Amino acid sequence: MSPRSFLSPQSLCCVPKEFLVPPCPQDLRGQLHPIVLAECPAIVPRCLWGGRPYRGTPSLLRPPLGSVFLHHTLEPARPCRSFGACASAMRDMQRFHQDTRGWDDIGYSFVVGSDGYLYEGYNTRGFGVGIVDDFMATLPDPDTLALVWDQLLPCTVHSGHVQPDFTLRGHHQLSHTDCPGNALFQEIQSCPEHEVRVVPAEQGGN
Known about the structure:
The chain is of the alpha/beta class. The protein has helices at residues 17-20, 26-29, 46-49, 83-100, 142-158, 182-189, and strands at residues 43-44, 65-72, 110-112, 118-120, 128-131, 162-170.
C-alpha cells in the first residue's frame, strides 16, 4: 500500500509518523520544514500533497520566532473535507502564489485543512498558519480551532521554533488586507497568548 492510501480522515490519526513523513524525491528533501520531525500533530508533507519545488534558493528561518500570523485562505473559500480535496486546494494555492503573485512558494508555513489535518507549506519570512475557508463572517469549526490552539501552537514552542511568549497576530496587522477575516480576528483578540495551552515538554500532556 502506498503512503498516499493512508491519508484519509478515517485512518490518518492511526498512522505511525514514519508513514506521514516518508522519503521524498531528491528535489524536495531540502524544502521540508524542520518542524515535521518534532512531536507535533499529524502533518501531511509537501511531497504527498504534490507541492512544486521552491523557486530560487530556500533559506531557513532563524528560530525562535516572536510572532505567529493567522490567515484565512479565502480562495478556496469553502472547506476541503478530504485528503484529495485539501491536496488539490494546496496545489491551487501554491500555483496562485507562484504564478500570479510571483512568490517563491506557497505563502503559509502550514495550512489547516477542513479534514482535520495540517498540510506543510513553506515560508522563509515568518511563521504563518492558513486556515482553509473565508472567515469574514463565520468562525472555523471548534475542532479546527482546537487543532491550532491546543496542538500546533504548543508544538511550535516545544520544538523551539517559536518563543514561549510569542504574540499571536492576524495577517492584517502586518499588511493592508482583510485577512484573516473579521470573525477570526475577533477570535484571536479574545484569546490572549497565555490561554494558548502550552504544557511544559517534560510534563507531557493529554
